[in-house]
Amino acid sequence: MSALPRPALQPLKGSTLVFGTLALSLAVFMNVLDSSIANVSIPAISGDMGVSPQQGTWVITSFAVSNAISVPLTGWLTMRFGQVRLFVASILLFVLASFLCGIAPSIGILIAARILQGAVAGPMIPLSQALLLSSYPRAKSGMALAFWGMTVLVAPIMGPLLGGWISDNYTWPWIFYINIPIGIFAAWATWSIYRVRESAIVRRPIDKVGLILLVLWVGSMQLMLDKGKELDWFNSGQIVILAAVAVIAFIYFIIWELGDDHPVVDLSLFKGRNFSSGVIAISVAYGLFFGSLVILPLWLQTQINYTATEAGKVMAPVGVFAIMLSPVVGKLVQKTDPRILATIAFSVFALVFYMRAQFTPEVDVFTLMIPTLIQGIAMAMFFVPLTSIILSGQPPDKIPAAAGLSNFVRIMFGGIGTSITSTLWDSRTALHHAQLAEHSGAQNPAFSQAVQTLTAQGMSEPGAWAVIERTLSVQASTMAAADIFWISAVLFIGLIALVWLSRPAKSGAPADAAGAH
Q1: Judging by beta carbons within 10 Å of its beta carbon (0-12, 13-18, 19+), is residue 246 exposed, middle or buried?
Q2: 205, 226, 245: which is the final residue of a domain?
Q3: 511 close to 133: Cβ distance less than 8 angstroms
Q4: Measured CA distances, 192 to 85, 88, 130, 172 (Å)
Q5: Hey, what's the torsion of the CAs at 464, 465, 468, 472, to 10 degrees?
Q6: How confident is the model at residue 184 (pLDDT cuts 50, 70, 90)?
């Protein structure tokens, strides 16, 4: 965004600065909140819509994928319409999409509305950074971004809490309706203050072929991941076709983008070692992290009988250390090798997932909350150091493109991580259930004893079998979740090696370090 030709803007002052910062932060808060608020509401949504919780996760992945696709278009749209017009239009369209989500009568229409919501949300985050940085003196840009960063961290924490409370006390459509007053206020305040600070309009051709190929391969891949389990993967002709379209479109996308004069995605950035290793590390880590944000509340609600509010409370402590340590990490990254900070973050993530792999169906709230609290340390040390590695050594004119591309890949991996985690959890649950069932039946003395104990308490034999079946299902689901947590812990350790393949230069301006949020 900074490369756009426009007159030098003077920083805002006094109440105008406070009001402008509040408006931009509210828009970002609303945007990021919607990436996590539906997580604990999936059982309520899927139950109301008459679909399985696994199908309900499409409500999350559809938003993530369409959001990822729209991010690379932010630069072209900004040049075509201007920063302020595009930002305000994104907010208002987001409000409209939120309303459509709330009134959706079926899962298909809800997913379509979420796709629209994710698509119009794409420009919001990078433009909020550009407008915020233009509002503050250069010497205070670090403070501006620290405030912005805390907004980004608070929203995913508030999401499960707010979503759970709304689902339990009202109805799930209100998780979308709450965006309407927030969005209208943010759009009005932003337009009131920033319309006189509009960026210059530059007309450039858009890479239409690249955009079509991008939508084709990302959309086909996500559909394949979401519907794979339901359609028995490659035994289904539909899945085979989706896989073929994704692979062919991806190959043509790479060939086309490398040869186009105005590519929608600048793939030449991947020639840099720091960029490649940093983007892969941050994207895989984000996919693992986002997958856990989905599976943990689902497991608590569908298997351990937690309410949506209780599940949200379990997720909430992650914000304590995340908010406290963010300003500290912002200062540290300018003096410390970012690879060291990223190593600490990944080590803490690995510890957190190892602790979760020990969960049992009898786990208490305190045991659930401890790893969530510790995870806040990793979150605070996650984004800024890795983004510093990604952008280190990039010429100033490449930084917006590098930040946009890394953001695109990271968001896309969030959607992929959700789909893979949900599918893996389902398949591992079925496997563990089959293995546990092999040791059940009249031939097993422990099983016979359990049936006799339950019938002695006045329960019918079919009722006793149903209770034992439920116990087996909960145990199998818990073992499957533990498998995923184990795999995640190992992958986080592996990502540490990837970080050390980079050779970052000394970190640049703080503004550079936040570009990929």
Answers
A1: buried
A2: 205
A3: yes
A4: 12, 10, 17, 33
A5: -170
A6: very high
Q: DSSP character for 7?
A: P
**In a shared domain, residues 159 and 216:** no
Token pair belonging to 487: 């795999």
> What confidence score (pLDDT) does residue 496 get?
93
Alpha carbons 85 and 30: distance in angstroms, whole number: 18
Identify whether residues 146 and 108 lie together within a single domain. Answer: yes
Q: How many beta carbons lie within 10 A of that of residue 397, not counting itself?
A: 9
Residues 196 and 184 in one domain: yes
Which residue shows structure tokens 């539909």? 238
Pair (487, 358) in one structural domain? yes
Annotate 45-70 with DSSP letters as a single string: HHHHHT--HHHHTHHHHHHHHHHHHH
Q: What is the pLDDT of residue 510?
A: 41
Which H or E run includes 83? Answer: helix 83-103
| 259 pLDDT higher than 60 | yes
Cα(110)–Cα(104) distance, rounded to whole angstroms? 5
Judge if 281 and 218 occupy the same domain: no
Q: How many structural domains are present in the chain?
A: 3
- For 169, residues 6+ apart whose C-beta sits below 8 A from its C-beta are 309
Model confidence at 435: pLDDT above 70: yes
Task: Name the residue range of residue 127's domain.
Answer: 1-205
Q: Which residue has the tokens 């309303």?
A: 99
3-state secondary structure of 445: helix
491 three-state secondary structure: helix
Q: Are the beta carbons of 422 and 57 closer than 8 angstroms? A: yes
pLDDT, tens digit, 9 for 90 and up, residues 309-343:
787 778 777 777 877 887 777 777 777 888 898 89
Q: Residue 450, class by beta-carbon neighbours within 10 Å (0-12 exposed, 13-18 middle, 19+ buried)?
A: middle
CA angle 334, 10, 23 (to 5 degrees): 80
Helix (H, G, I), strand (E, B) or coil at 104: coil
Last residue of a domain, one of 157, 174, 205: 205
pTM greater than the 0.85 cutoff = no
Answer yes or no: do 299 and 244 share one domain: no
DSSP letter, residue 198? P
- Whether residue 117 is predicted with pLDDT greater than 50 in this model: the reply is yes
Burial of residue 169 (number of CB atoms within 10 Å: 0-12, 13-18, 19+): exposed
Pair 213, 153 in one domain: no
Which residue, 141, 39, 51, is CA-closest to 421? Answer: 39
Q: Residues 6 or more apart from 141 whose CB is under 8 A from it?
A: 133, 509, 510, 511
CA distance between the termini of the chain = 15
Does residue 161 sit in the same domain as residue 249? no
